[in-house]
Amino acid sequence: MIRILRFLTNSLTVLAGLSVALMMFHIMADVIGKYVFHYPVPSTAEVVANYYMIASVFLILAYVEAKGSAISVDLIYDNVGPAAQRVMCKVGQIGTLIFYMGLGWFSWDVAMRAFRINETVDGLWRVTVWPAKYMLPLGLALACLVLLIKIFAGDRVRLVETTTQIHSH
């Protein structure tokens, strides 16, 4: 199970990275097309907003949680003892899990409705967007699995290889 979760986490991370690279090339082609050839790439804004941005944010959530590299404010954390730090980490993980579960549940319903109506957005071209709606519940579900393992197994299970030691909370 851990090996599969590790593979899925890494795969979605690669897809998120590819989406950033594709977004960069797509926007660059649009700018060059617009200012050099006076012909922009049709529906660039719609594709960027509905595919690349969603992929780059939600597909990497499991990796961020597995690595323990979410943004945190350590003002209080650094000034308490190890026992309090462990409690704070668990409370933060549980709160994040609850938030991800709620958002995942809501986004699954949104994705299903978008699929049923074959949701599109209109730009210069009509762009089908319902497939992108599934990236949210997919990324959130995987992040929830990672958090569950971290909550119950703690540091006994490594979900990603880290090159530097960082504290996770």
Could you characterize what this model shows?
With 169 residues, the protein is mostly helical. It has two domains: 1-69; 71-168, no CATH class. Helix content is 67%, strand content 4%. It is built from six helices and two strands. The protein has helices at residues 2-35, 44-58, 61-67, 82-116, 130-133, 135-153; strands spanning 120-122, 126-128. The chain has a two-stranded antiparallel ribbon. Helix 3 (61-67) runs parallel beside helix 6 (135-153) and helix 4 runs antiparallel to helix 6 (135-153). The chain starts with a helix and ends in a 16-residue tail after the last helix. The model has no long low-confidence stretch (mean pLDDT 91).
SS content category: mainly alpha
The description of the largest β-sheet is: 2 strands, antiparallel
Radius of gyration: 19 Å
Low-pLDDT ranges: none
Indicate the mean pLDDT: 91
Q: First CA to last CA: what distance?
A: 23 Å
Overall shape: it is: elongated
H/E series, N to C? HHHHEEHH
Strand order of the largest sheet: 1-2
Helix percent reads 55-70%
Task: Classify the beta-strand content into a percent band.
Answer: under 5%
Number of beta strands: 2
Overall tally of domains: 2
Q: Note the total helix count.
A: 6
